[in-house]
Amino acid sequence: MTYINEHYLKLTGAYLFPEIARRVREFSIEDPQAAGRIIRCGIGDVTEPLPAAVIEAMHKAVDEMAGRETFRGYAPPTGYEFLREAIAAGDFKEHGLDIDAEEIFISDGSKTDCGAILDILGEGNITGVTDPVYPVYVDSNVMAGHTGPAREDGTYGGLVSLPCTAENGFVPDIPEEKLDLIYLCYPNNPTGGMISRDQLKAWVDYALANDAIIIYDAAYQAFIHDVDAPWSIYDIDGAKRCAMEFHSFSKNGGFTGVRCGYTVCPRELEGSTKTNARIPLHGLWTRRWATKANSVGYIVQRAAEALYSDEGRLQVRRLVDHYLGNARLLREACETMGLTAFGGNNSPYVWVACPDGLGSWEMFDRMLRRANVVITPGVGFGSCGEGYIRISAFNTRENVLQVLQRMKDMDRS
Ligand code: MLT
């Protein structure tokens, strides 16, 4: 007999996006004519080609791999120096933040990092997750055995839900109780909300006072337009002692299919043993990568480096502006139709209250059947998401204009 990891059996449902894909497939079989018209604004997957600077860098790297003198084998476990230096300079030093290359760890994306980080964080942490939440934080904790069983309402023992509602501007209130680990994501997935500097400072102060660690998911950083908003959690004094930051090249560089991201683990950041010994996470995280991975391919790392060149940055700006333009159009159209909408200004997601008292999945069905548009039901991100849908602005302008037209037609019918 081979025993399995039984924690997987605690998972209450299918992962959200494959479940949406399953429902769309079923509908396509039922109504093959409508299937050809479907526009996908569900999962936040990019539609625009890779920036020219990236393509050029990839071609060059492929050529290097073709010659014995320039060929590369295993990459350093935490990433090539050239990429880590480019990130430290472009994402931190330029913004006045003191993060160096040694504190940067390259990976094949944030989703991988969400699971991997639990290798070095122990069981028994009281973990705060926002509701609604990117489901990967929750499911990866369940899989790692860091939660209790599922409760009636679909939440899990050991996880403390931090409600994010229209009333609190989608930023959770500081809890009364003591948490050990907190997941925050800003610009927020799924609500599109942004956190202010004061609000983030309150969370950093809370973490320092409670000896807690914040996992700050900054995957949508490139979409920050508000000049007063915090660029990084390290904008806040003391954050290097209480926070790791997760980054992705998926949404700024269009790398959803290329796969590359990174984490920041400052040297000052410490966890604790059960006997209260203080242990720097940096050493554990380094060891984790050295043992369990061989980083990301050379070609991909050169591609990511190209995002930091002068042309690369301009091209990224254009991509991000394109998606933000879509988001603005979507949000304005929702508002014109009398819908209550949030997000879309510092984020590629628009979070919309369902009309007519509809639940999220009912609205999902209405959009799919009447407009042939796929959105994400808010409840899929947690119970506080019930009564909302998330519309992704990752699409061509042509498709977004089609979506607007179809929503208007649906509204009139
Ligand atoms: C989303 O749609 O929430 C994201 O694209 C999912 C992801 O990045 O894994």
Task: Describe the model.
The structure is a single chain. The protein is of the alpha/beta class and 413 residues long. The protein folds into two domains: 13-49 and 312-412, Aspartate Aminotransferase, domain 1; 54-310, Type I PLP-dependent aspartate aminotransferase-like (Major domain) (Aspartate Aminotransferase, domain 2), CATH 3.40.640.10. Helix content is 36%, strand content 14%. The strands form four sheets. Strands 2-8-7-6-5-3-4 form a seven-stranded mixed beta sheet, with helices on both faces. A four-stranded antiparallel beta sheet has the order 11-12-15-14. A hairpin with a 5-residue loop joins strand 9 (270-272) and strand 10 (278-280). The longest helix has 27 residues, at 310-336. The mean pLDDT is 97.
Topology:
Blueprint: H1 16-30, H2 32-35, E1 39-40, H3 52-65, H4 81-92, E2 104-107, H5 110-116, E3 127-131, H6 135-143, E4 159-163, E5 181-185, H7 197-209, E6 213-217, E7 243-248, E8 261-264, E9 270-272, E10 278-280, H8 281-292, H9 298-306, H10 310-336, E11 341-343, E12 349-353, H11 360-371, E13 373-374, E14 376-377, E15 388-392, H12 397-412
Parallel strand pairs: 1-13, 3-4, 3-5, 5-6, 6-7
Antiparallel strand pairs: 2-8, 7-8, 9-10, 11-12, 12-15, 14-15
Helix pairs in contact: 3-9, 4-9, 10-12
The structure holds D-malate.
CATH class membership of the largest domain: Alpha Beta
* Series of H and E elements: HHEHHEHEHEEHEEEEEHHHEEHEEEH
Structural class: alpha/beta
Sheet bearing the most strands, described?
7 strands, mixed
| Small molecules bound in the structure, each named once | D-malate
Distance between the termini: 59 Å
Q: CATH topology of the largest domain, which one?
A: Aspartate Aminotransferase, domain 2
Using the CA coordinates, give the radius of gyration: 21 Å
Unreliable runs: none
What is the percentage of strand-forming residues? 5-15%
CATH architecture of the largest domain: 3-Layer(aba) Sandwich
Number of domains: 2
Tell me, rounded to a whole number, the average pLDDT: 97
Principal-axes geometry comes out as globular
Helical stretch tally? 12
The spatial strand order of the largest sheet comes to 2-8-7-6-5-3-4
| Number of extended strands | 15
Helical fraction equals 25-40%
